């Protein structure tokens, strides 16, 4: 049900005007899950939000959709402060950056992201200037906040061309952005610099940085760990090998869709990236 809801909300947010979108998000609740140290995870509709809450104030990773901004702000208030000092965007998609402008305008939040996130947001006529990151980086940046060290670093051409992940060093918590869709096929934005090979390389890089004790906050889906992340990688590699073999045999994407993936991967299909879309991504990626 949650998978269906997410896909529907993405479509509604893209198509509806502000008033209609506000109504469509009216029933969404923001759930807080404390993790370790100063770190929390908020879940509503859209990308999972990472939070650092402590004596220095509030920092958030991604901010879902603008119609949810007041609810997110209220949830942050219960953690100590409604107004985040900093917002880190893991990439440019609207389900992760939709509330950027609202928080900047209402909270004077400072937005950080990879260089390409600013470029892509600035090129969208529907995005207000207030939504643009004011601090950008090419490779990465380190922050010291709430007595913890945040390593923010770029991984190229995976989900998009502007992906960034955040590792909270002391509590050992990793926010992957959309380089991890837990328990479901990922969206790889081939039109925005993403690639299947780049995505696999990024996941392998991150797996090399975590251990069995690392708490992993995926871009979408439930809280996770290294074992589940390894299962996610196995799914991508095995379905890619399946599609590559049939492609090498002269089969079209339509032929492979008609035949379908092996039964073990059927449950990974969801409303936004169903089996057909995933096969086409693998075929064209």
Task: Tell me about this structure.
The protein is of the alpha/beta class. It has a single domain (2-284), classed as Metallo-beta-lactamase, Chain A, CATH 3.60.15.10. 36% of the residues lie in helices and 19% in strands. The strands form 2 sheets. It has a 7-stranded mixed β-sheet with strand order 1-2-3-4-5-6-7. Strand 8 (140-145) and strand 9 form a beta hairpin. Helix 7 runs antiparallel to helix 8 (226-248) and helix 9 packs antiparallel against helix 10. It starts with a helix and ends with a helix. The model is unreliable at 1-21 (pLDDT under 50).
Annotation keywords:
285 residues; alpha/beta; Metallo-beta-lactamase, Chain A; seven-stranded mixed β-sheet; five-stranded mixed β-sheet; 12 strands; disordered N terminus
